[in-house]
């Protein structure tokens, strides 16, 4: 991972976000909600700007932060996002309405592995962003791959898991098990016959998977 000095430097030179972004970041900090850090969200937004997806599927809404930031990067996109925690779902609905994003952001309440039929029916998606239960990344990828458009890309967050995928020997057993699952996902992903995948050591690690041309 990058040194703290470099990350501090990048954060310092970054333009100040809109005031509503700062409000959401403060809410996430106050309620201990994990959201993407400044460099991670910056990369995600840049990928959205480059790819210009007409429709995005986000697995893991939390308080609606990344859905709203993706919409900020490409105001003509529509986002289907799913959240299983009721309190998070309600916070997301509130935050999205506060930013008048409800016309572009469709929030589904429930588990992404149980709402599969409903979510697939709303596809196809030009971008899929996986940022939910880390132990289920492989299942999320395979479940929603059929809904990915031919030119679609899949983004997976937290794939370096605080560096524990490289060495989790000093971590508690629960984190070791999770790091092992993410490592298995990463190895499977980079060897996937249908995708080119690059893992970028930004934020907590972001995997960018692009369909190979047939």
TrEMBL record:
Q: What UniProt keywords apply to this chain's record, in alphabetical order?
A: Magnesium, Metal-binding, Methyltransferase, S-adenosyl-L-methionine, Transferase, tRNA processing
Q: Carries keyword Metal-binding?
A: yes
Which enzyme type, at the first EC level? transferase
Q: Which organism is it from?
A: Gracilibacillus salinarum
Q: Which residues bind S-adenosyl-L-methionine?
A: 36, 66, 83, 111-112, 131
- Give the reaction(s) catalysed: 5-hydroxyuridine(34) in tRNA + S-adenosyl-L-methionine = 5-methoxyuridine(34) in tRNA + S-adenosyl-L-homocysteine + H(+)
The UniProt entry, under SUPFAM superfamilies, shows: S-adenosyl-L-methionine-dependent methyltransferases (SSF53335)
Binding annotation for Mg(2+): 131, 157-158
Quote the EC number.
2.1.1.-
Indicate what this protein is called per its UniProt record.
Answer: tRNA 5-hydroxyuridine methyltransferase
Q: Name one Pfam family in it.
A: Methyltransf_3
